[in-house]
Amino acid sequence: MQYTFESGIAFASKLDAEDPLFKFRERFYLSPGSIYMDGNSLGLCSKDAEAYILEVIEAWKKEAINIWTANSGHYFLYQDHLGKLLAPMINAESQEVTVMANTTLNIHSGIATFYKPTRERYKILVDDLNFPTDIYAVCSQVKLKGLDPADAVKSVPSRDGRTIEEEDIIAAMTDDVALVFLPAVQYRSAQLLDMKRITAEAHKRGIIIGWDLCHSIGAVPHDFADIDPDFAVWCNYKYLSAGPGAIAGFYLNKKHFGKEPGLAGWHGNKKESQFQMEHKFDHALSAGGWQTGTQPLLSMAPLEGVLRIYLEAGIGAVRKKSLQQTAYLMYLIESRLVQYGFQIGNPREDQRRGGHISLEHDEAFRICQALRQRKVIPDFREPNVVRLAPVALYTSYEDVYNLVEILDQIMKNKEYEAFDDARGLVV
């Protein structure tokens, strides 16, 4: 899409006045005088999320053990309820979506289910830019099969250190590849892969494919009825703002409901026979069949609150604003900041960009420290990336403008030089 922007704070104010999503800003806890640009790592707490946590606590106080059976078993079946609320985010059927565990364990679950190596077909295809936990899980699963990751894990190299070419992924789908596991959006560069094309090419070759949606869910609408992946995983604490370490998401294509879960647990049993306590696993024929242990209600409740905000706003409207805000941010960067040595490291095209901007600079780490001192919360990623994520539900256009204004001042005055380059426990 072509965008027309103007310089100056008045234009940012005009965009805010015209923004149909601006009203949702008041539903989140914003720190006065602060600009939050780290929603791609941890989304802000919403008042709706808080309300649902308190509702669960009240039910626990009142019902104790009966919390599981009160209200027709609402909380015992809570994962199904949340799956229905999540399904529209990826255009999947409600039975194909559940919430459980965390992203890494869900990767293990998906791969353990589908990875059945043979002498001829035994490799898992990944890319060399993916988030480390994905690779750790893949290598662990390969080792559990008695194979060497140096041989069985095949990594598609990046040509530029920022993005992965779809053609290179497809070319790497050789006859020895059993499974492909890739991120929908690259965590550093915000590159959005062509999931439909890659999935179709994998299936054309008889290869199972799974996707990591951690950096796309809540910022990018996916159409899984059209893309048709085999499985997918994601966290719910970034754009979806379900809280630190919130329960994760899991998608399983309905054509695989009859498969035996690779990691079985008693909450994956059919509900009607679960409490018969049989030692023969009778797994539910839905994504819920991949559940393992007792669901953590206090981790699940915030997700309901924020999903109701998303359903009210509409993921399409969220994506439209996200693209406009990131385009506006790039416009301001190119207008005011390139003179200081900044580069934009993410794709420019709407269809190839996720929800954040990858701002590159040799002094990225110290610049992030200077931003934090100015009450701007960015995100740093090695080796030289300042990640900036305007989240459509609570970031204003004035926030975006003021961010660039502050960056301009930091660079003009060389404020970053007051900070050392030593990394802390969390960067």
TrEMBL record:
Its main location: cytoplasm. The keyword Cytoplasm applies. It comes from Ranatra chinensis. Catalyzes the cleavage of L-kynurenine (L-Kyn) and L-3-hydroxykynurenine (L-3OHKyn) into anthranilic acid (AA) and 3-hydroxyanthranilic acid (3-OHAA), respectively. Belongs to the kynureninase family. Pfam families: KYNU_C. Keywords: Cytoplasm, Hydrolase, Pyridine nucleotide biosynthesis, Pyridoxal phosphate. Its cofactor is pyridoxal 5'-phosphate. InterPro entries: Kynureninase, PyrdxlP-dep_Trfase, PyrdxlP-dep_Trfase_major, PyrdxlP-dep_Trfase_small. This is Kynureninase. It is an enzyme of class 3 (hydrolase). GO terms for biological process: 'de novo' NAD+ biosynthetic process from L-tryptophan; anthranilate metabolic process; L-kynurenine catabolic process; L-tryptophan catabolic process; quinolinate biosynthetic process. Pathway: Cofactor biosynthesis; NAD(+) biosynthesis; quinolinate from L-kynurenine: step 2/3; Amino-acid degradation; L-kynurenine degradation; L-alanine and anthranilate from L-kynurenine: step 1/1. Homodimer.
